[in-house]
């Protein structure tokens, strides 16, 4: 659906764009693909809104805080829009898909609302606004995103995200993703392999396969294709050094996939598999489709077959009905599993989800306290686990200059540890060995070895 209203009387051609992204890796890749399309259409990317003819926000709807932040940014543009009415302001992504026309009502100075399946038409939509008017609403739940990737347009030459599927069919009670991203659609192995080969030919060494529910990759494709099949095909590509994938849903993670990962040399020993809670009662209310014992067994099996694997997780605190006892079960699970790191969030109701009908009966004060407790617990676990690597040599893909010290390099191990080490920019894009001599909860520090 594309609708247009109002007129913008301006003949100046837009050729500068400011683009800001909020949210997950999928949003970051959508931003990369969008900017590639705009650059091919002649747009120059600028770093300040005052320099831009087009201002675009790629949004997230998973939590209320993310939406509030976008609306704050949009509100700050009212003065600029009055001074320069020809500037085009657009909202893309999940929030656009969810709120649609309501964004125009709340922020009348916004010109474009573009949903999650329509960003591939950005140059056309912007031109439509330029020629015919503002308030263009572009939302289509059935449109299939199929962007021919411009491989040269990506932030890091040696790494790349690759979408292998979109959407989610799980409908966890708290999650807005199925409603804004749609049902699961998988790309063919041949299509993914062609893109990865093109990226490798352009210098890429490491890819991260993306899917809202990547374990169910292959659903709808002929021949019973699975994520394991895709990983096996990509593992054979010459020039590709590392393969990662996110995000894994425990209910769809199979032991067969774990066995496949254990025998593939390029698939990294890192698993991001959100548990969300350590309480069976809360998991049932969340409609997660697994028990805590099932989750524990999966982790145990993965560690048995892949001894050096590191596991990351997500947790939500303060879900409706979460008692102190439920929360203590989550604490126990974190202490037992000893995750490498965790993303921990306070529950916020999302309109349209099943959980929005539940009473939000955990006070914000308790949510904050539980959030802080888990953050502190994870910080301590991460520090203890990282210190175990002091004195060891780890393999690192050098990604570039460290943000904290530009005289040093930064990269990641196969297990996704961040490592800062000495070395010139000549090492960027290479796999190097680093002797670790210091560790914090977030970062390892070391020196290059031969």
TrEMBL record:
<feature type="binding site">
    <location>
        <position position="175"/>
    </location>
    <ligand>
        <name>[4Fe-4S] cluster 2</name>
    </ligand>
</feature>
<keyword id="KW-0408">Iron</keyword>
<keyword id="KW-0949">S-adenosyl-L-methionine</keyword>
<comment type="subunit">
    <text>Monomer.</text>
</comment>
<feature type="binding site">
    <location>
        <position position="24"/>
    </location>
    <ligand>
        <name>[4Fe-4S] cluster 1</name>
    </ligand>
</feature>
<dbReference type="InterPro" id="IPR013848">
    <property type="entry name" value="Methylthiotransferase_N"/>
</dbReference>
<dbReference type="InterPro" id="IPR058240">
    <property type="entry name" value="rSAM_sf"/>
</dbReference>
<dbReference type="InterPro" id="IPR038135">
    <property type="entry name" value="Methylthiotransferase_N_sf"/>
</dbReference>
<dbReference type="InterPro" id="IPR023404">
    <property type="entry name" value="rSAM_horseshoe"/>
</dbReference>
<comment type="similarity">
    <text>Belongs to the methylthiotransferase family. MiaB subfamily.</text>
</comment>
<dbReference type="Pfam" id="PF00919">
    <property type="entry name" value="UPF0004"/>
</dbReference>
<dbReference type="GO" id="GO:0005829">
    <property type="term" value="C:cytosol"/>
</dbReference>
<comment type="function">
    <text>Catalyzes the methylthiolation of N6-(dimethylallyl)adenosine (i(6)A), leading to the formation of 2-methylthio-N6-(dimethylallyl)adenosine (ms(2)i(6)A) at position 37 in tRNAs that read codons beginning with uridine.</text>
</comment>
<dbReference type="Pfam" id="PF01938">
    <property type="entry name" value="TRAM"/>
</dbReference>
<keyword id="KW-0479">Metal-binding</keyword>
<protein>
    <recommendedName>
        <fullName>tRNA-2-methylthio-N(6)-dimethylallyladenosine synthase</fullName>
        <ecNumber>2.8.4.3</ecNumber>
    </recommendedName>
</protein>
<feature type="domain" description="Radical SAM core">
    <location>
        <begin position="154"/>
        <end position="384"/>
    </location>
</feature>
<keyword id="KW-0819">tRNA processing</keyword>
<feature type="binding site">
    <location>
        <position position="60"/>
    </location>
    <ligand>
        <name>[4Fe-4S] cluster 1</name>
    </ligand>
</feature>
<keyword id="KW-0963">Cytoplasm</keyword>
<keyword id="KW-0004">4Fe-4S</keyword>
<dbReference type="Pfam" id="PF04055">
    <property type="entry name" value="Radical_SAM"/>
</dbReference>
<keyword id="KW-0808">Transferase</keyword>
<dbReference type="InterPro" id="IPR020612">
    <property type="entry name" value="Methylthiotransferase_CS"/>
</dbReference>
<dbReference type="InterPro" id="IPR006463">
    <property type="entry name" value="MiaB_methiolase"/>
</dbReference>
<feature type="domain" description="TRAM">
    <location>
        <begin position="387"/>
        <end position="450"/>
    </location>
</feature>
<feature type="binding site">
    <location>
        <position position="168"/>
    </location>
    <ligand>
        <name>[4Fe-4S] cluster 2</name>
    </ligand>
</feature>
<feature type="binding site">
    <location>
        <position position="94"/>
    </location>
    <ligand>
        <name>[4Fe-4S] cluster 1</name>
    </ligand>
</feature>
<dbReference type="GO" id="GO:0051539">
    <property type="term" value="F:4 iron, 4 sulfur cluster binding"/>
</dbReference>
<dbReference type="InterPro" id="IPR002792">
    <property type="entry name" value="TRAM_dom"/>
</dbReference>
<feature type="binding site">
    <location>
        <position position="172"/>
    </location>
    <ligand>
        <name>[4Fe-4S] cluster 2</name>
    </ligand>
</feature>
<dbReference type="GO" id="GO:0046872">
    <property type="term" value="F:metal ion binding"/>
</dbReference>
<dbReference type="InterPro" id="IPR005839">
    <property type="entry name" value="Methylthiotransferase"/>
</dbReference>
<keyword id="KW-0411">Iron-sulfur</keyword>
<dbReference type="GO" id="GO:0035597">
    <property type="term" value="F:tRNA-2-methylthio-N(6)-dimethylallyladenosine(37) synthase activity"/>
</dbReference>
<dbReference type="InterPro" id="IPR007197">
    <property type="entry name" value="rSAM"/>
</dbReference>
<feature type="domain" description="MTTase N-terminal">
    <location>
        <begin position="15"/>
        <end position="131"/>
    </location>
</feature>
<dbReference type="InterPro" id="IPR006638">
    <property type="entry name" value="Elp3/MiaA/NifB-like_rSAM"/>
</dbReference>
């Amino acid at each position: 659906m594309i609708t247009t209203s109002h007129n913008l009387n301006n003949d100046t051609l837009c050729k500068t764009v400011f683009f800001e992204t909020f949210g997950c890796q999928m949003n970051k890749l959508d931003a990369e693909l969008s900017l590639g399309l705009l650059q091919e259409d002649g747009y120059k990317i600028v770093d300040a809104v005052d320099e831009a003819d087009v201002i675009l926000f790629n949004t997230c709807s998973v939590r209320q805080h993310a939406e509030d932040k976008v609306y704050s940014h949009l509100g700050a543009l009212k003065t600029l829009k009055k001074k320069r009415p020809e500037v085009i302001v657009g909202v893309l992504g999940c929030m656009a898909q969810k709120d649609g026309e309501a964004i125009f009502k709340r922020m009348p100075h916004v010109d474009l609302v573009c949903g999650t399946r329509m960003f591939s038409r950005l140059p056309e939509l912007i031109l439509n606004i330029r020629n015919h008017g503002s308030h263009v609403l572009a939302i289509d739940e059935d449109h299939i995103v199929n962007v021919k990737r411009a491989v040269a347009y990506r932030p890091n030459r040696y790494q790349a995200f690759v979408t292998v599927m979109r959407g989610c069919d799980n409908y966890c009670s708290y999650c807005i993703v199925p409603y804004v991203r749609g049902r699961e659609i998988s790309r063919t192995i041949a299509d993914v392999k062609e893109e990865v080969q093109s990226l490798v030919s352009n210098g890429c060494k490491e890819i991260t396969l993306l899917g809202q529910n990547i374990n169910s990759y292959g659903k709808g494709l002929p021949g019973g294709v699975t994520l394991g099949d895709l990983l096996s095909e990509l593992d054979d590509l010459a020039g590709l050094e590392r393969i990662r994938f996110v995000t894994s849903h425990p209910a769809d993670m199979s032991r067969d996939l774990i066995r496949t990962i254990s025998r593939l040399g390029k698939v990294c020993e890192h698993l991001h598999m959100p548990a969300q809670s350590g309480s069976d009662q809360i998991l049932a209310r969340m409609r997660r489709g697994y028990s805590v014992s099932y989750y524990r067994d999966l982790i145990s099996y993965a560690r048995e077959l892949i001894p050096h694997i590191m596991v990351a997780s997500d947790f939500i605190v303060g879900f409706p009905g979460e008692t102190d006892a439920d929360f203590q079960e989550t604490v126990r699970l974190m202490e037992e599993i000893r995750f490498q790191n965790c993303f921990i969030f306070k529950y916020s109701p999302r309109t349209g989800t099943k959980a929005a009908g539940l009473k939000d009966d955990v006070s914000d004060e308790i949510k904050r306290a539980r959030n802080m407790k888990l953050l502190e617990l994870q910080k301590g676990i991460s520090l203890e686990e990282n210190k175990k690597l002091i004195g060891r040599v780890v393999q690192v893909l050098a990604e570039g200059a460290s943000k904290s010290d530009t005289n040093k390099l930064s990269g990641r191990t196969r297990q996704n540890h961040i490592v800062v080490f000495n070395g010139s920019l000549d090492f960027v894009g290479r796999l190097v060995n680093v002797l670790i001599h210091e560790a914090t909860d977030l970062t390892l520090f070391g020196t290059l070895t031969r």
